[in-house]
Amino acid sequence: MPLTKDNTKANTKGRAIRLFLFIPLLAGLILIGQGSYIKVKAAFAQILLDKAWQDTVDTGQKTKAWPWADTFPVAAIEVLGRSNGRIIALDGSSGEALAFAPGHLHYTASPGQIGTAVYAAHRDTHFAFLENALKGDIIVVTDKFGEAHKYQVDQMRITPWDQSGITAYDSAKRIALVTCWPFDATTPGPLRYIVEGAYLGSKL
Amino acid sequence: MLKTSSNKAENTHLSFSYTKYIFGTAILALSLLNNTTSWADGIGTSASAPSLQVTSPDLVTPNDMKRGSLLLKATEAGKMVEAIQLATNVEIDVSGPIARTKVTQRFRNPSQGWVEGTYVFPLPENSAVDTLKMQIGDRFIEGIIKPKEEAKKIYEEAKRTGKKASLVEQLRPNMFTNSVANIGPGEIVVVQIEYQESVKQSNGLFSMRFPMVVAPRYSPKPTIVETVTFNEDSSTGNNGWGVINDPVPDRDKITPPVLDPAEFAKTNPVSLTMTLSSGFPIGEIKSPFHSVTTDYKSKDQVTVSLADDIVPADRDFEITWKAEPNYEPRVALFKESTPQGDFVLAFVTPPKLEDIQEEEIQKKPREVIFVLDNSGSMSGPSIRQAKDSLIFALSKLTNQDRFNIVRFDDTYEVLFSSAADASQANLDIAKEFVSSLEADGGTEMLPALKAALYDSTPQNTEYLRQVIFLTDGAIGNEKEMFDIIVKQRGRSRIFTVGIGSAPNSHFMSRASEFGQGTFTHIGSERQVKERMTELFHKLENPVMTDLRATWADTENVEVSPSSLPDLYSGEPIVLAARSDSFSGTLELSGRYNNQPWAIKLPLAKAANGQGIDKLWARRKIAEYEGQYFLNDDRSSLDKLITQTALNYHLVSRLTSLVAVDITPSRPLDESLVSQDLPLNLPDGWDFNKVFGEGYSTLPAPAKDTSLDQAHNLILMKPTQVAMNGGNQKALPLPSTATTAELKIIAGFILLFLSIVLLVFTRKSSPKPEGQA
Question: Top-level CATH class of A33-203?
Fold first, then answer.
């Protein structure tokens, strides 16, 4: 009898431990899900944005990718041979915008204008390819009028977020693609990786 | 899961609240730097000028400014801090049809370093700015006119070499900036600007406005009502400073709870006097927003001053006057001889409607499209005024008319699929639609404008198509709007109704000009009925068309405007012309109420006037600018504008006033840009007279006023804005890492861990079973 009793006790205990072990299992699955969601969202948003961008260029009007979006596409960026086709950039660099696409920093130049046009995106989604960018690479930015502006990468550098050296008053036509650095880090940090290019010209 | 970055970059986004107003960028280029560093090498050099930390809840951009203000550059890109404004004095001198205004303002550099200030000031649209004078400490500077680029270069050069310099540039035809380089610590700056404009005239009512307020353009946030007022009888006495007298009970919810020196300083005490020589016996004088006192010198000469000596600059000053009954002038003719040639200015009011038999007046049915702005900037009294105006307008429609309503914020909606008959049922639907509207969201006027101009029957001449825009015009893309109006207006006529205490009247008067309609301003709810009645009177009544000016005996006349616009009821023809010399007559002819009409004016009988040349030149420039939207050859237009502006000493889009201080140290060969000023103060430079006794240009002691104490307290607060312009501050870059990988990795670790443990527990659990 005491044996049976012991047995039941052990069984209950084992079940409790196993049940307890399901919590980290579940938590692990949720975390993986959340992490993947960020990536999937970033990729899927680009599909919707691509369509909205096409409309923007066709109609010349700001077009939101989905009705509740709080920002709108302003440019398409392609780094020839590096990025996977064109990436649609949104207006502004709020966390909301960056979750879906690269953001065009407010108060920076528009493509082709005097000044530095600054686009920022997450290092692990849209701008992951910047890691491979090299001097001489061609950046093509299409503005909302459908005009394609060409820039050639002339420097890559790493700076703290608040010491980029890029100001709203720059007098040359330049572009800066900005993302977090280092690329393989997993926690947000103060350093930024900047790929800068000089203006080559434009064509419609 | 959206990532929210935790570093300061995020703060930056929050404060860039006027995000859609991209124009800001352009102005930043004009902004101020510390004098010790030049523009170009600003990034690399680390200036050793003392850096001063100032916290202000309201960083601003020039476009946010509600009044003429001296802005000191903040470290945040494009943001500036408003300097303490000590006093403003306005002197308006109206002589016949021309009003000349002298605005004198005192500012103080509150910082411990040398700074450059940008002074932003609103002026009436199409005013001709021709004079800039400045007193910094004991230095006097007077500006001269130069092409914009050249002026900028001269200014930058002076700035680099440590000279005091000043530059007046036109931002928009109704907004100007004045940059002042090298203001010393605690130094007081006095800026005096002079401009002139022509007096407005409509239905025998003469009027002019002094804009003390410029609406912030496109603000997604609700506009905070100016909450500081002056308490004349308080114990603080008449030193010009008042106390916070908060009319907004729930202010805590919308503004920081502390006494806010930035807000306080923004209250710009203004004193204003106007001398009016009308040229005819003056009847009634009214100032709808300020109480005034009048002092008659003779029947046609009067001095008007504010009843409260000093008022806060929270609303535009407007004044209207009428002639005594039976003395209403129908015709006015002035001339002026200058080295640039002879100038003539003519005002002619078409015959009054009362003079025409009722049955002779031909009324056409109308198709009226109302466009109502219910964006966030209209919230508060503005949307009420707009709704009242629209509902009042609906009641004025007759059953032969048709109408439609378009409302817009950042979206737009058209009430009926096409213009509907003004039947009672339709009007009821419309009234309900209008009543339910609330002011919210951004301002995207372009699609609404296109929708309103879309005309399904463009050839229909049976109906007069009239588009009525009710808005505060707080938009940034004015040029696009003008472009659409010019290209798509077709048979439609565009009438703009400016709503609120400070509508963007430049945009609205130009829009109506391009749309061949008129601009009406409604400043308060009390004016709704009166002004809308007046507007509808115009809409319903015949128009003077095909106006032409014919000059007998005078050759080579340059008339401005070169083609005279249609006139609505009560509006005068205003015409300025230049020639080498005038003789003979000017004949004005046109069609009024479908009958030929003409009048002959003997030019020899013109009275002498002043400033007609500048008025003519300003109109000429406006006319050239108007052609931008029709003409692709912009560079030749630019040349014309530059030449005209230089000849007549006017600030324009392409010319600026620049002044560089005369210092004994400067080499003689650089005196090119300086005015030789006499040692004695020129006329009108007596700032003691302007600001009263006891005024000093010496740096004010720190204990100055309670305001200063508050300001000093603020200075010690942690950094948000540094007023050290020495370093061009880099743009903060946003945080650009997601937690995706971190999460995935952590997830896998947990997964792995739990599986290992599961396996382990499964292995160990059979033990008791085995024992059994």
Answer: mainly beta
